[in-house]
Specification:
- The complex is a heterodimer of chains A (about 1200) and B (about 140).
- In chain A, strands 13, 15, 18, 19, 20, 23, 24 and 25 form an eight-stranded mixed β-sheet that branches.
- Chain A contains 26 helices and 59 strands.
- Chain A folds into six domains: about 1-60 and about 65-220, Toll/interleukin-1 receptor homology (TIR) domain (Rossmann fold), CATH 3.40.50.10140; about 470-580, no CATH class; about 585-755, Immunoglobulins (Immunoglobulin-like, Sandwich); about 760-910, Immunoglobulins (Immunoglobulin-like, Sandwich); about 915-1035 and about 1045-1060, Immunoglobulins (Immunoglobulin-like, Sandwich); about 1065-1189, Immunoglobulin-like (Sandwich), CATH 2.60.40.
- In chain A, strand 1 (about 15-20), helix 2 (about 25-35) and strand 2 (about 40-45) form a beta-alpha-beta unit.
- Helix content of chain A is about 30%, strand content about 30%.
- Chain A has about 1200 residues and is α+β, with helices and mostly antiparallel strands.
- With about 140 residues, chain B is α+β, with helices and mostly antiparallel strands.
- In chain B, strands 2-1-5-4-3 form a five-stranded antiparallel β-sheet, with helices on both faces.
- The longest helix of chain B is centred in the first third of the chain and has 20 residues, at about 25-45.
- Chain B starts with a strand and ends in an 8-residue tail after the last helix.
- Classes of the chains: A alpha+beta (about 1200), B alpha+beta (about 140).
- At the A-B interface, helix 14, helix 18, helix 19 and helix 20 of A face strand 2, helix 1 and strand 3 of B.
């Protein structure tokens, strides 16, 4: 598109001429140019220059038979030299000045009119007002208008006093000029159109020219519809004269018609695409393509036709790429053109057109080469190009001759023209043009993810590079293409590409690449195809020719000749010689993804999955090749990850060669009767190896040596995980298993696990029942040597949660590693000699962590033993797996021998030893009124409430939950340090309780404390019960358990209690027992502890067992801080344990009832005076009775 | 005239490719068939844009090259049939009809118990049947 002149590429712009007042020209030009649509100006500084506007003589002479269809510079003329409007600018001074000035104005105007009228150019007169002067008089203005013979609206005054005035004037001028320009182009168009309608033209050529002109005038007016219509008319008319016109010699005639058609087509396509009519544009292009495709022209200039075709595609591609038109997405495919032909997506894609442009350019290149080779007069070609220039008509060429001073155009003959065209054609580097086009197409397809189309483009690009001798570039591109064809199995295409690659590497002198590509080609699955190649399509096939089996065999023998060093290959192009020399032996690597797997594949399968060290391990080595002829291998080297196992298989026939090369390595050599790999037939070899080392034994690679200079290193593959052969997997050919045993073909692996030797050491973990939480649990570990001495032994200890199998401690506690955060902890290891410190100076390992321990074991003799004790502490009840493993060397010397390992594990339960409970009780026959107990909310989880300054009883119990007897050491309540003695008093009730009590399993131990709260507090800390105990191991073993001597402390935090003041306290005083029929007194004390007067109701219920004296119910007032005593005399009427009459006290203020618990209000009635033997007890009893009284 | 007919498998590998031209342009036809796979991919991946229903096996005109037109057909097992023709005015119905007959021939060929799915079709009977179908292309338009 760039080679078109600009006036053709861009829509036409109206041209206006300014005459006079040169100082204003730049302002007006700038303004008009920025108008929408823009207007170009042709500025003439003064009126003497107006002659340029007049019709030149040549133009006026132009009549009769035209010399061509379109004039080359007609468009340019209308854009730069032939204005539509002339604006005559006169200064107001001149207009309103003295008669001489006025006369001058009139003369200039007359001259201008004369020029303008000849070409129908429109005229407008502008009177430029000076800054300081007044307006021009009315009379002068009328006179001026009459002189100019223009409508009054085309005479305007240009005021520039202020910027707004200037802007206004410019606006007016702009609109008038635009209007006049439009009128001019319309009139011109109409004039030409009448010519067409009246058919008043002498030839069809003129018809085309007129149609073109009308269309261009319409374009000036931006009437795209009309423009398109007339371009199409012109195009159609042009189509008709093909073959009929005889004005020029045939070749040049066709060239001219095609050039004009190209222009018309370009204009029409541009208008269609800019109008967004993409479907119409494509249909138009198709029609254009179909119409001219067959117009090849004379055989000697066919290349011109292909060049022209290529340009059509290229220009349309560029138009499509730059146009804003998008593919209509809402319409559904298949899109159909007006004449009902389906469109495909690719036709909307510029890449398609670029690709075809490249295709035609390639065609051109071939034809041009042919034409050049046919014409022998090279010198003639060179000279013929001189002085030939494009003539005045589009698509015509002429020779420029000097005749004296004048230059004369002379028409060419066809023969001359052909020579000229050949000379021109030679100048261009078509290959690079083709590559550039293909690259554009390639990029576009790549963006669309159309990788195959893109590959096709890059394949063509590479061919072009190949043809110009840029083998590096070609090879790179071909490599990319080959990988796609390999992946998708397009053998024929791959063959072709590989043929190019082979040739490229040959030209580049890369022997290794050449051999690789050759081997791959020789192993391709091509079995059919005939050798004969028709000479017409020589260009179709690459250097490898047509894919066929004989061709494969030829390539095979060629490459093997080179590999064996028998023959070198001289590149026919030049100095590069391919051969293999002893200085540069060739080694090919074939890995799991290499395309050369088809040429050579090695599979290794061990017959077993595990093996004992030192035992023979059998495996099958299988080789397969798809090369067309049997491959004879001199020797095979098998490489393992354990280099001691490597060995070599030598062919029996070629023993002398192998013997020399192996002698120095000293590795094992075995011979095989035959080492020939036949096409598509597994060569199976079974051998054994012996490994002393435990661990994984893996076959790494198999190296085949073919001749002295060539080796192929195949990475070994497991039959179980072997991929299908690329390309061959789509072939319908016989497939066999790599091993004789079909099961092994599915499960065989190229590695085997070699066990480690069995340990001959006993590892004993002496477990003794479950561990108790809190204690330091001792676990003896004993190592007994039974057949191995233990050298540099190492004991690893691991504690693992039995349930989760993970580390100990709950996840949220994992972060801060402290003693408390671990549920179970390995505290240490004690040695039998009691020395549990690591011995310094020796490099003994001694590491103990929370759940992991590592310690070294000293040398143990054959039959000897060593033991230690693990100390483990449980913080929470939890089962734990203990893993102990011993690694050692059975002999003292040599680091080559691997360590032997013995493992042992044990699950140990951790159990809670002691369950501690507690209970609060009220004091005997005393009941404080606690307000919080009355107003107990139904759902509130209230803590225990105690009365302030009242004694309460606390009973703490500890139960042995284990299955072993425990010995109690002590039990006490510890207060928090800062609360001691202040908040409450906790005292041990009875000191006489003996410590060191034995608790058998399930037994409960109780201890009573009295509590007197001293502080009024809703949550008073009560402290912690500390229970110290130890395992009861019997008296005789007391000394043995010196560690646990201190005892284990189990703590139990008492809950906080609510302490409040009791407003009333009711207590009952009554003897514990009495005698039938003998009266006794019973007191109910109501103690008011508040500052208020308390009204108290009381009610006493009758009892059958007692005779009662005193008021049954009454209300009394108890004074503040005082006590009211109700006294009753009772006579027991029945003997035995009797319930006292029930007394209920109601505090009116709190409307709360208080009564003593049933259990405490009983008394024992003896039938008669008892006679106790124990005198002192009797004394005591009477004492109580007396005090009660 | 039909110049080439191809069957392409799941991995876009050629299963059967037969050209019916005198000229030795197999390589070119291979390229054309291979490139047309891109168009099929595009059509299959953007079914909305093509507007065809999901059950439509006939893909229509895939793309025109300078001398040929390429038509596509996708079986319900995602095997692709590609037809290359030099006819400039091919009736859609003819192509549909051709593909239908070709499909049944293909189904018969792969139903052979000795045929391994995913491998190239080497059956002689299939080749003969295909050439019969190809020869009758366009002639049976009245049917």
């Amino acid at each position: 598109m760039e080679e078109y002149p600009e006036e053709l590429r861009t829509p036409p712009v109206s041209l206006v001429s300014l005459v006079g007042c040169p100082e204003l020209h730049s302002t007006i030009s700038t303004y008009l140019h920025s108008e929408q649509p823009p207007i170009n100006t042709l500025a003439l500084p003064d009126f003497s220059k107006i002659s340029v506007l007049s019709r030149s003589k040549k133009e006026t002479l132009d009549s009769g038979q035209p010399g061509g269809i379109l004039k080359r510079d007609w468009l340019l003329k209308h854009r730069t030299r032939s204005p539509a409007v002339v604006a005559a600018l006169f200064g107001s001074d001149d207009v309103s000045g003295d008669p001489a000035q006025w006369l001058q104005v009139c003369t200039e105007l007359e001259n201008l009119k004369a020029v303008v009228r000849g070409r129908n150019i429109k005229l407008t007169v502008v009177v430029v007002q000076s800054f300081d002067k007044d307006e021009v008089s009315e009379d002068r203005m009328i006179a001026l208008r009459k002189r100019a013979e223009i409508d009054s609206k085309y005479l305007l005054t240009f005021v520039q006093k202020s910027s707004s005035d200037l802007k206004h004037s410019l606006n007016r001028l702009g609109s008038i000029v635009a209007e006049l320009a439009n009128t001019y182009y319309r009139d011109e168009g109409r004039r030409v159109k009448t010519c067409i309608e009246k058919k008043s033209f002498s030839s069809v050529d003129l018809n085309i020219r007129y149609c073109f002109k009308v269309a261009v005038y319409a374009e000036f007016r931006r009437d795209w519809g009309e423009a398109l219509r007339f371009y199409e008319d012109a195009y159609r008319a042009l189509r008709e004269i093909i073959g009929t016109s005889t004005r020029l010699p045939a070749i040049q005639r066709l060239v001219e018609i095609k050039s004009v058609a190209e222009q018309l087509h370009f204009k029409a396509s541009t208008i269609l695409l800019h109008g967004g009519k993409i479907i119409e544009a494509i249909a138009w292009f198709r029609q254009h393509h179909a119409a001219y495709k067959k117009l090849i022209g004379a055989p000697e200039v066919i290349f011109l036709h292909w060049e022209w075709m290529s340009r059509q595609f290229l220009v349309f591609a560029e138009l499509l790429e730059t146009s804003s038109a998008v593919i209509p997405s809402n319409t559904s495919l298949p899109l159909v053109t007006k004449d009902n032909k389906p469109l495909t997506e690719s036709e909307f894609n510029p890449a398609y057109y670029y690709q075809l442009a490249a295709h035609y350019l390639r065609e051109k290149k071939c034809c041009l080469e042919l034409a050049l080779s046919a014409s022998e007069a090279v010198a003639e070609i060179e000279s013929s190009a001189d002085s030939v220039i494009p003539s005045v008509y589009v698509g015509q060429f002429a020779r420029l001759l000097e005749q004296g001073d004048a230059l004369v155009m002379q028409n060419l003959t066809d023969a001359e023209y052909v020579l000229y065209a050949l000379a021109e054609g030679k100048r261009f580097q078509d290959s690079f043009e083709i590559i550039a086009l293909l690259k554009k197409s390639f990029e576009s397809y790549s963006n669309l993810k159309a990788q195959r189309m893109a590959s096709y483009c890059s394949c063509q690009m590479a061919r072009e590079y190949f043809s110009v001798g840029k083998f590096d570039n070609a090879k790179e591109l071909f490599d990319g293409v080959a990988s796609l064809y390999r992946k998708e199995g397009w053998t024929t295409l791959l063959w072709d590409v590989l043929g190019y690659l082979r040739e490229c590497s040959k030209r580049l002198g890369s022997v290794k690449d050449f051999i690789e590509y050759s081997l791959e080609m020789a192993a391709l699955p091509i079995s059919s195809g005939d050798e004969v190649q028709s000479p017409i399509h020589k260009g179709e096939y690459g250097p490898a020719g047509c894919a066929s089996l004989p061709q494969r065999e030829r390539i095979y023998s060629e490459v093997f000749g080179i590999m064996k060093g028998e023959s070198g290959l001289t590149s026919n192009e030049g100095n590069v010689t391919l051969n293999v020399t002893p200085e540069r032996p060739i080694r090919l690597e074939i890995d799991l993804v290499s395309p050369l797997r088809v040429a050579f594949l090695a599979s290794v399968a061990f017959h077993d999955q595990v093996a004992k060290p030192g035992a023979s391990i059998f495996f099958t080595l299988s080789l397969i090749s798809q090369l067309p002829q049997p491959v004879e291998i001199d020797q095979l080297e098998v490489k393992f990850n354990q280099s001691e196992c490597n060995f070599t298989i030598a062919s029996a026939q070629k023993a002398p060669i192998s013997a020399t090369s192996i002698g120095k390595t000293g590795a094992r050599v075995v011979t095989a009767p035959v080492l020939t790999v036949v096409t598509n037939k597994w060569l199976r070899l079974t051998y054994d190896v012996t490994s002393e080392l435990s661990g994984k034994l893996e076959c790494k690679s198999v190296i085949a040596r073919l001749g002295p200079l060539f080796t192929i290193c195949c990475q070994a593959e497991s039959p179980a995980s072997m991929n299908d052969l690329p390309l061959w997997k789509f072939e319908d050919h016989v497939e066999t298993f790599p091993t004789r045993d079909p099961a092994l073909a599915f499960s065989g692996q190229k590695f085997i696990q070699v066990d480690e030797p069995d340990p001959q050491v006993d590892l004993v973990l002496g477990a003794s029942g479950p561990a108790l939480v809190g204690e330091r649990f001792m676990l003896p570990v004993t190592i007994v040597s039974k057949g191995h001495e233990i050298h540099s032994g190492e004991l690893k200890i691991n504690l693992v949660d039995a349930r989760r199998g993970a580390a100990l401690g709950s996840p949220r506690e994992m972060e801060p590693i402290s003693t408390d955060s671990l549920h179970v902890e390995l505290l240490g290891v004690s040695r039998p000699d009691g020395d549990d410190e690591p011995q310094t100076g020796q490099d003994n390992i001694w590491k103990i962590q929370h759940s992991f321990g590592l310690l070294s074991v000293p040398f143990v003799n054959l039959g000897g033993s060593w033991s230690c004790k693990l100390e483990i502490k449980w913080h929470r009840p939890k089962p734990v797996m203990l893993y102990v493993s011993l690694g050692y060397l059975p002999t003292s010397n040599g680091s080559t021998i691997q360590k032997v390992h013995a493992h042992k594990s044990l699950q140990i339960e951790g159990k809670t030893a002691i369950m501690i409970g507690h209970r609060f009780m009220l004091p005997f026959r005393r009941n404080p009124l606690l307000l919080s107990k009355i107003k107990v909310a139904p759902n509130s989880n209230q803590s225990t409430t105690l009365a302030l300054n009242e004694t309460s009883i606390l009973i703490v119990s500890a139960k042995n939950c284990t299955e072993v007897p425990l010995r109690l050491v002590s039990m006490s309540i510890e207060m928090d340090e800062n609360d001691i003695g202040k908040s409450c008093t906790v005292r041990q009730r009875d000191e006489s309780q003996k410590d060191h009590a034995l608790l058998v399993p399930g037994e409960e131990f109780r201890k009573v404390f009295s509590v007197i709260p001293k502080i009024h507090s809703p949550n008073l800390a009560m402290g912690t019960v500390c229970f110290t105990w130890k395992r009861d191991s019997g008296l005789d073993k007391q000394s043995d358990s010196n560690i646990t001597e201190a005892g284990i402390i189990t703590r139990h935090k008492l809950p906080d209690v609510n302490v409040e003041m009791a407003p009333l306290v009711v207590s009952l005083e009554c003897p514990p027992h009495t005698i039938l029929g003998i009266p006794f007194t019973c007191y109910v004390k109501i103690q008011n502890q508040t500052e208020f007067l308390q009204e108290v109701k009381y009610l006493i219920a009758d009892s059958q067992s007692f005779l009662l004296s005193g008021s049954h119910n009454d209300m009394v007032s108890v004074l503040p801080k005082s006590e009211h005593i109700l006294g009753y005399k009772l006579v027991p009427l029945a003997s035995g344990s009797q319930q006292l009459p029930r007394i209920t006290v109601t505090a009116v203020r709190y409307s709360a009832e208080l009564s003593l618990p049933q259990a405490t209000s009983t008394v024992f009635v003896f039938p008669s005076e008892p006679h106790f033997k124990m005198g002192n007890l009797k004394e005591k009893v009477t004492e109580i009775v007396t005090t009660g009284a | 005239m039909i110049v080439c007919i191809a069957v392409v498998g799941h991995q876009n590998n050629p299963l059967y490719l037969q050209s019916f031209t005198e000229a030795d342009d197999a390589l070119k036809l291979h390229h054309i068939v291979h490139c047309s796979l891109d168009v099929i991919d595009e059509r299959v991946n953007n079914p909305k844009k093509t507007g065809s229903t999901l059950n439509e096996t006939y893909l229509g005109l895939l793309y025109p090259t300078e001398n040929y037109k390429v038509y596509g057909y996708l079986t319900n097992t995602k095997v692709k049939f590609i037809l290359v023709t030099t006819h400039l005015d091919v009736r859609d119905a003819d192509v549909r009809n051709f593909f239908r007959r070709f499909h049944s021939a293909y189904v018969d060929a792969v139903s052979n118990p000795f045929h391994v799915p995913g491998k190239k079709i080497t059956s002689q009977t299939f080749a003969e049947r295909v050439s019969t179908i190809v020869k009758s292309f366009g002639l049976s338009s009245a049917v």
